[in-house]
Amino acid sequence: MNNPINGSSAGALPLNAPEATGHGDHEVCLPLAEQGRVPFITPGVMVLMGFAAIGLLVLAARFIFGIGAVTNLDNQYPWGLWIGIDVATGVALAAGGFTTAFIAHVLHQNRYHEIVRPALLTAMLGYTFVALGVVVDLGRYYNIWHVLVPKYWQGNSALFEVGMCVCIYLTVLYIEFLPIVCERFIGRINLPGPLGALNGPLDKILRLADAALNKTITFFIIMGVVLSCAHQSSLGTLMVIAPTKLHALWYTPILPLQFLLSAFAVGLAMAIFESLIASRSFKRPFEMSVLSPLGRMIPFLLTIYFAAKLIDLVNRGVLPLALEPTLQAATFWIEIIGGVLLPIFIFLIHGLRRRPGWLFAAAAMVVLGVALNRVNVFIIGYKPLFGDGPYVPAIPEVLLTIGFISILTLVYRAWVFIFPILPVEGGHDNA
Amino acid sequence: MVSRRDFMKISGSVAGTAAASLAGVQTACASGHHLEPDRIGVLTDYTECIGCRRCEWACAQENGLPFGDLESCDDQSVFQEMRRPDERQYTVVNRYPAPEGSDKPLDVKVNCMHCEHPTCVSACIVGALKKDPMGPVTYDASACIGCRYCMVACPFQIPAYEYHDPLTPKVLKCTLCTERTLEENKMPACVEMCPKEALTFGRREDLLDLARDRIRRNPDRYLPHIFGEYDGGGTSWLMIADRDFTEVDLPELSDRSAAEITEGIQHGIFRGFTGPLMVFGLVSILGKSMGDQEGRLDQEGQRKEGDNE
């Protein structure tokens, strides 16, 4: 069929060229610092800085005195909050990067372009902090490079697969972010004093990178989707090796499939969740004309996820366990009703989906629901035969996790101020 | 604690769902494990054990672990609680009360089972834990990154960790006295020390024959179950007892190692990168065709924009 407008844009570069498609949906993005009005330091930012400082103190204690000094981990509960939240939940909630990229750049749904950059930033920072979280939890963190050396490769290990994919995907995310750096700094590098001599060469490097990425960015975006599918699911495979320890409400050989399906849903929910928070924090209008149709896709994804869970539970005949008066049964119901069923209904109702408050509530429920699922699988549902359990995280453990989340939020804010992530206000969207 | 009923449900579900969902990939695993026919093992006859705890002492001496003098083994107060092996003691003996109509309690030695298809080895991200074809599960601290996934994977909850070492923490467990048994042609320290016939060292195959023989000769004394012959895919350490092994806190395990399930999933998806390549191809084709349609959709775009939201 004759296609007059933009027939061959599969290879066109999506991130960095508003002119590549003639839609007008592409927003021009600018650093928040150049858009003006919002100060970087606010009372909320000061609080986050306080938590960040406390977290860094715990971090120092962990490296000086050892993991045992700051955590409640023991021989029966080898994994705790840092793996359950910082790593497993972190990976799930960073799924917004590949899901929005898939919708905007693979399915070419151009109206979603304006949320791709914030979601990409979340993924990039999210995975960076996942990697840092792993390093903190590793007893011999200085050996982490072993994972990249063929001599040590152990292809039977699901953790090896997760580790490799996360390493490569983190690199891909940095590459995907590079066009934004190019956009910000090409022709504008202005280092002070003697460093000024570097301005020219650095500019050349950026221009080279920009030209190279113009042709190849689609490849990296597809790589990102493939790598994400691989390690999101393998994260679920991790616990399949412990059938006698993981509670039967969660232990299933199709845990990897369930992890992947929930990652799809939570990726989009996270994009909505953070967009609404960012709009509030940066005093910008809510991007409802983008977020609301995005929300319409979530019940579809959640229903597939729910079906995979329900069929599996019935098939294994373990649903009666959910009626027993246990902590696990309680958190199971919260996860299913609060994190899956209720948000499906809210997202389905057109009138609610259009309202920022309801949309936010539904997205937050999915985010918290999937987070609770990861916590259930890695912490609450982990019931070893022996042990003085249940494991309850130590206060420093919690403080370090809060500190990491605070630092992540602060870096996100800084990056939004420095780099062109958010579209210029007053575009087509004034909901 | 997982109740026995839980176990039944779990193992039932593993068998059912695993078979259903992994039927196509089961053949991919289990092929790479080479085990010598002469591989070693230890037979533990719980009914012979008198709870003298000399094996605990011998283990500590052999591995340079803290322990009192030989007389401290006579301290029976430790039996008041159920102990677990840890980073300072690779083996412990626990005492279980006598069953109805008997006055003999059962003393149960706990240590690494050196599984035939160990989940810890399968889980290890860098191959620090290895299954020696001769039987022992060995650990190389210099390769270890300290992720502790082996501890999550072990169904017997054996590997222990030096949480309070900030720099060079190790995963610690029974070594099956690898140096003594494989290089010096000696028995493991605990077996050598045992004053009764509670511990017997030898070829795993011979030990199985010996166990079968004892059970056949004394049907009143033993239950006809050699723990470790098949349990969890088989173990180097074999057990016989006068009661069900769940009563002495051994987990109820499928006859196949749980590692077979995860390895089946891993190799099923990643063999020859078929899975990832297929996703890559699908996404690429989808991207291309959606890109080609983009213009068409765009023409209708103005109209649809009004309908949507």
- Oligomeric state of this protein: heterodimer
Q: Specify the CATH architecture of chain A.
A: Up-down Bundle
CATH class wording of chain B: Alpha Beta
The secondary-structure class of chain B comes to alpha+beta
Computed Rg of chain A:
22 Å
Widest sheet, order of strands of chain A: 1-2
- Mean pLDDT across the residues of chain A is 90
Percent helix among the residues of chain A? 55-70%
Which sequence of SSEs, written as H and E, runs from N to C of chain B?
Answer: HEHEEHEEHEEHHEHEHH
Order of helices and strands of chain A: EHHHHHHHHHHHHHHE
Q: What count of domains describes the coordinates of chain B?
A: 1
Please tell me what the overall shape of chain B is. Answer: elongated
Provide mean pLDDT of chain B, rounded: 86
Briefly note the CATH topology name of chain A.
Formate dehydrogenase/DMSO reductase fold
Describe this structure in words.
The complex is a heterodimer of chains A (431) and B (309). Chain A has 14 helices and two strands. Residues 1-25 and 427-431 of chain A have low confidence and may be disordered. Chain A is 65% helix and 1% strand. Chain A has helices at residues 32-35, 43-65, 67-70, 81-93, 96-106, 113-137, 158-185, 199-237, 255-281, 288-316, 327-348, 350-353, 356-380, 395-418; strands at 29-30, 422-423. By secondary structure, chain B is an alpha+beta fold. Mean pLDDT of chain B is 86; it is low at 1-31 and 301-309. Chain B has helices at residues 4-22, 54-63, 119-123, 149-153, 178-183, 189-193, 204-217, 258-270, 274-307; strands spanning 40-45, 92-96, 106-110, 129-131, 137-139, 160-161, 171-172, 199-203, 237-240. Chain B has a single domain (18-268), classed as Alpha-Beta Plaits, CATH 3.30.70. Chain B is elongated and about 85 Å long. Chain B has nine helices and nine strands. Chains A and B meet through helix 2, helix 3, helix 5, helix 7 and helix 8 of A and helix 1, helix 3, helix 4, strand 6 and helix 8 of B.
